[in-house]
Every structure is written in C-alpha cells, then in structure tokens.
Amino acid sequence: MNELSSLGLILLLALGAGHLVKYVRLPEVTGYILAGIVLGPSMLGWVSVQNLAALEILSEVALGLILFSVGTVFEASRFRRVGRQVLSLTLYESALAALLVTAGMLWLGVSWQASFLLGAIAIATAPASTLMVIREVDSEGPLTDSLLAIIALNNIYCIIAFSLVGAAIDLASTLGGSTGLMTTLYAALYPLVWQLVGSVALGFLVGLLLARWASAISETGETLILLGGSILFCVGVARVLELSPLIASMAVGATMVNLSQRSQPLFTTLSEADPPFYAIFFVLAGAVLDLSLVGSLGLAGGVYLVGRAVGKLLGARFGARRLGMAPSVQRYLGLTLMAQAGLAVGLTFVAEHRFPELSRAVTTIVLASVAVYEMFGPVTTRWALIRSGESRFQRPDEIAI
Amino acid sequence: MPTSESTENRHSPKYIAGLALAAASILVVGVLLRPAEPQSEAPPLVSQSETQRLARLAQRRALDTMTEHFSDVAGDLASRVVQVGAGTGSGILWGTDLVLSTGLDTPAPESTVVLTPDGHLLTMTRSVAGPELPFAAYELPGETPSRANPIGAARLLEPAEWVLAVWHRESELAFSPGHYLEMQATSCGEHAVEEVLTSLALSSEMAGGGLFDLDGALVAVILPCGEGHAALSPPSISRLIRVGRSLEGQLLALYGMRTVPVTDAAGSHLGVESGALVSEVWKGRPAARAGLRPGDVIEGLGEHPVGSPQDLQPLLLPPELGPGVVRARRGRRTVEIDLSAGSTSENGGAGNEDHGVQLEPAAAGLVIGSVSPGSRGEAAGLRTGDRIVRVDDREPQNEADLRRALARRPIFVELERGARRLGMLLE
C-alpha cells in the first residue's frame, strides 16, 4: 500500500475508532491508538514500516503543533498565578516517580546506569495525548490548569534529568581513562545547556516572527499558513541544530502568547485545522507500538510500570496537599499524569545510541511499558478529569442548558 | 500601576530587539561551542558479521540486477536472433532480407522455415551457401516487413568489455555474458576471417546465434569453423557473403564444383585450348554424383561452347531452362554429363557411383606424408594428408608406381582432401 492510501485509511479508521470507543467511554485518543495498533506492522500490517517512515514527518508536524499549544500555559499573567506552586508540584511528582523506579531497578540488580536512565525517563508524561483528552472533555478548572502546566514542565524536567544522568555515566566511564575530566564534563553537560538554552532561544526567535507577522494578517487561511510554516521551520531547524523540538515548539507558543494580542483567535484557528494531524499522529503512535513487547515486559518492566504509577500518584497527592492546592488537584492530578509516549521513546533511542551497552535493558522496558501507558494513560486521565467535575459534562452552567 | 508599566517596558520594541539579538547570539555561540563528536570511537550499531552479511547481500543484489540487465538486453535482441528450422537452430537477421544460419545439413537445404519474433512461420529460400562456407544465408520472403538491422562497421570494443551471446535453445532465447578479449585473424576452411575472441566457451548449441555488445550492436556471429566454433566479425561475414554470391561461389553451392581457366601449361598438357578446367569437386554433391571429376575440361553446355569459367553462367538457371548436357574433355575422350541428374536425385548418389568415382581402397595408403619446402608439390599447393587418387588419368597401384608417375613432368594430379577432390597441375 502506498503512502497516500495508508494516510487515507489512517484518517478514516481513526475517525471510526474514535466514534466506537465513545460507546465504552474511552477517550478518542485511545481509539486512534488502537486503530494504529490494528493497522500497524504488529497486527494487520496495512501500514507498513516503510509507510511509517514516510509518514513520520507528519507526526513531527503534529507534535510541533501540540507542543505549540502546550506552550501557551506560560502566558505571563497565568503563570505568575500558578507558576511557583506548579514548579514545586511538578518537582514532587517527578522526583518521586524517578526515585521509585530507580530504587526498584537497583533492588532488582539492574546496573546503576540503566536504573538512573530509566528513572529519568519515567518522569516524562505524554503532552499530546493528555492535551487531547483535555480538549475532548473540554475541561476547565484548577486541575486542568495545573495539569497543563505540569505536562509542559514535566518534560523539561525529564530532559534535564536524562542529560544529567547521561553526563554522570560519561564521567564515570572516563574516570581513570585517558580523556581529560574537563573535556568529558564539557562534552557531557553541553547537550543539557544547549538543549535548554538553545531551544528556548530558537523558539523565541520563531515565536517573535510569528507574533509580529500575525498582527499583519487577518485571513484564517493565511494565519494557518503562517502557523504551519513557523512550526515546521522551528522543528526542522531544531533537528539540524540538535536542539529539542519539544522545548523549542513550546517556546514558540510561550513567546506568541505573551507578545501577540491576536494569539487567542490564532489558537482558535489552529484548533479548527489541526485535528487531522492529531489523528495521524496518534494512529502512527499506535502503529509503532509493538504489542509483542508487552509479553516480554518481565519483572523489571512490571517494577517500572508500578514504580512510575505509584510515584506519580503519591507525588502529586503529597505535593498538592503540602502546597495547599484545591482538593480536586490533590485527589485526581496523579491519575492524569499516567500517559507516556513520544519523549520516552525518543530518549530511549538517544540512550541506545549513546550507551549501546545499556540499551538492551532500557529499550525493552521503556518500549513495552509505553505500549501499556499509551493505551491506559488517556483512559485514567479522562476518568479523573470527569470525576473531578471539571469537564463540560459536569459543569453546572452547561447542565443548566 | 507598576505592573502595567513593566508590561509596557517588556513590550517596548527595544527590549524585544535586545532579546532577539541575545537569542540569536545564543544560537550562534552554541553551534560554535559544540564539542567534537566522539562518535568515531562508538561501537557500530550492528555487529561486524552482520555488516559483512549485509554487504554480501548488497553485492548479490547487484549481481542479480546485472543478470536482469543482461536478460533485458537479450530480450531486446529477440527480433534479431530468430529460430530457424523446425525449432532446431538459431539464425541472425542480417540486413533487411537475409537470415544467417549454420548449414544445418550438408548441403544446406533449398529452403527452410523461420519463426519470426511476432510468431509467424515463414519459408525462406536459400540464397548464399556453399560447402566451404560456415553459414547458409536464406532470403526472407518478399512480403516480410523489412526491418532495418544495420550491420554497419563494427565498433571497436574495449578489452574486457561485456558482450552477450544470444541464441535459441529449443524455443527459448538463451544468453550468456562474457568479456571481449581481442580480434584474431584466423582461417575458416579456405577463407581468412576475423575471429572475435571472448571469455565465452562457444558450443555447438550456440551456433547460428550472435554476439552483441550491451547496446545491442552485433559484434560477431557464432558459426562452426574447422573443428570447433568461432565468432566471426560482421566484415568477415560480409566478405564471405560476397564470395558466396559470385559465380564461382554459386556453382560451388549448386553443384559442388569449382573451375579455373585453362592455362597454357594445362592446355598443352591436357590437349585443349580453352574451356573451364574442373579443379575441385565435392563428394556427394551433384557434380560428383553426375560423374564429373577434377581434370575434366568443360568445353560446351548443350550447343554453347565454353571458353572460360565465365561461360558457365547458364548452369545457374533452373534445371528445366538449363543448358542440359555438359560436354567435357577427359583425357582423349569427350564425356557427356548431365549435371541436373545429380542435382535432382538428392539421395541417388549411389546409382552414379560407376560413372567415375570408383574409389580406391582406403587402405591403399597413398597419402602424402610430407611436402618438402620449395618443391613443386608445395608450389602447386599439395598438403600433408592429401591422398593422391589419380595421376594423369591413371590410378597408381602402389608406391613404386606412384613414384614413377610423379617423376614425369608436367603431370595432372587428382587428390582427395577431406570432403573434396582437387585437381592440380604439377609443372
């Protein structure tokens, strides 16, 4: 099957699956992902590995758009309101999840390098599927606000932790080696600083361009062209410069929302045009999941799954309570943080490339548990948002109508 | 109020321009500060043996692609290499109206069939053939759409350049690739030819097929030559076709005989003044079956006198229009020979045996063991292995007899060489 027919099939089946899962009260995202699993190489194979490679670029576009939207949580007035609390709260849930996973791995006898890498990767929460669920249930309220901010920060923390662990592993392996300590330190810490500072700088420049140009445009179509062009350009340049497309896209959104008065109509326009990209994104995300890995999860995989879940749950609850946040945040935030996807897989491939000797343990565990989290994460997120009373199904004014 | 003021500050163009400048310089400095990639030391992602296996796989795929290419080239040549006879041999389309094939039988049949690439079975008539030619050329019937197959001057091939032998095996087109080595002057029967040497081992199965370069240009035609097979260059083939089309060549093909003008020396020895001296007769061919033999001097065709071999032209006419009886001087007698009798009874050779070809016992052993350099025997063209059959119309009975006969001069010697009987005057 060629790329175009694959793409068409993806969109149509995603739509169908999205409708179907609503009957069993699952989020649309899960439907898309299930459609992807069925279509993908691990089941029917209608979307082949070659198709996946060819369509990967669409995934990147979709992820760029999603993170652009996520970046809007850094709007100055809003962030000033919840910023400090959320920074600490994210630290609680991230640290506890990383701690439990790392401790569990060490307890199982996994090498310290692999244990810490897994701990760092466990921090990541999938921004895309979480955002999709928020949009689907159209939730509003303190839980949603915290969640949006946390999925933005969470992934930055994850990248920082991963880089630090990577630097530590590099340093440990060169101790007593021929390479100078400073050289190793520089080589190890450069990616961290570069990925944070450089990505923000790139995102700021692109966001500036976008904001300035957007004020001169009023037509919807042109707005979409400008937006698409900026995001594609940003992601592409980030790839070339080995920056983080994730952070750069968020920075574009953050810059845009703070500099342009026209940001609101722009995001409305975007949310009208982007659903096909998201459908493709999630179907492809499902297609690359290898279900056969779930069977090979093993004890270590189980510990990773449980450690991360418990860490997120307890960390969110404990942190929210200490920070005196709303009861709904205390009770439900942990459940909304379960989803894990692209970033975890991406970091796994980085780890594979940088530390080939560790790759076997890390790759199997992460890929297998991502398959689990990717399917069940959106489900718990949806459930938690609805139970918290923030979704449109429960908002009193809408019930009144 | 201070808040809104600071917001104002933040949105002032100067402030934003400063930020943009800072961001741009961060990117530039970051790129410049990038540490050198330590990738060279990183172990490869796949193991050594896997890399080798993949490399070998890629090589094999390249070979497959190459074979596919050869197959494609051979497929394109299907219109040039045709199936001749009842699916038994290959033939090359030569020019617009000829098909070159091996003499499938000896002698080549008057007509044969060809299976054209578009599936038509056509009957072709023999155009050029001859007992000493390595091929027989057949003329395609007139209504055949003429395909231009320019033979042209053969391109000079580079050593080691790919060539493709293409021929018919049963009803399939077969091909075999090889390398061109060099051109070599050699001889095929009595004819000097140019042979194209390649790395290919030529087999009898390939005979009638062609050797092509990868652009589809004909490089050589594979033909039987001497004991084995040779790939003969197109210019050589053209020359041989010209030979075959000459009067001499046609008489040879039609009757299996060759004549020479009567020289003064021969005339005085044989007691004639003019005519066509039969110098060569091929065994089993019409002339031999009709009883003509070397040393006969053809003096007349029916009523027409014959002064030289050129006067034998009427023999090429079909039998019913032909001149009829050939009058020939043999020694002191004049014999009348009906050549058409020999040509009509294709297989009736045995009945004519008593006319003249009374063969001496094979064990008679009057075989030339050596020819001394500079001797008159060498000058006349005698060769080791020739068997002397007759000297001046007499059959020598034994070696002493032969020596006596050879001692005279001049003498007319009739000898057997392979499938031919030759006559020559030793002066």
Q: Which secondary structure elements does this structure contain, and how are they paired or packed?
A:
The complex is a heterodimer of chains A (401) and B (427).
Chain A: H1 3-23, H2 28-39, H3 49-70, H4 76-108, H5 112-122, H6 127-137, H7 142-174, H8 181-214, H9 220-240, H10 245-259, H11 263-273, H12 275-288, H13 291-295, H14 298-322, H15 327-336, H16 342-354, H17 359-387, H18 396-400
Helix pairs in contact in A: 1-2, 1-12, 2-12, 2-17, 3-9, 3-10, 3-12, 4-5, 4-7, 4-14, 5-7, 5-17, 6-7, 6-17, 7-8, 7-15, 7-16, 8-9, 8-10, 9-10, 9-11, 14-15, 14-17, 15-17, 16-17
Chain B: H1 2-10, H2 13-33, H3 48-76, E1 81-84, E2 89-94, E3 98-102, E4 111-115, E5 121-128, E6 135-139, E7 162-169, E8 172-188, E9 191-198, E10 210-213, E11 218-225, E12 228-232, H4 234-245, H5 247-255, E13 257-261, H6 264-270, E14 276-282, H7 286-290, E15 297-301, E16 304-305, E17 326-330, E18 333-337, H8 339-344, H9 353-356, H10 376-380, E19 387-391, H11 399-407, E20 411-417, E21 420-426
Antiparallel strand pairs in B: 1-2, 1-4, 2-3, 3-6, 4-5, 5-6, 7-8, 7-10, 8-9, 10-11, 11-12, 13-14, 14-15, 14-21, 15-16, 15-17, 17-18, 19-20, 20-21
Based on CA atoms alone, the radius of gyration of chain B comes out at 37 Å
| Major β-sheet annotation of chain B | 9 strands, antiparallel
CATH superfamily of the domain at 246-356 in chain B: PDZ domain
What's the CATH topology label of the domain at 246-356 in chain B?
Pdz3 Domain
Number of helices of chain A: 18
- The string of secondary-structure elements of chain A, in order, is HHHHHHHHHHHHHHHHHH
Number of helices of chain B: 11
Straight-line N-to-C gap of chain A: 48 Å
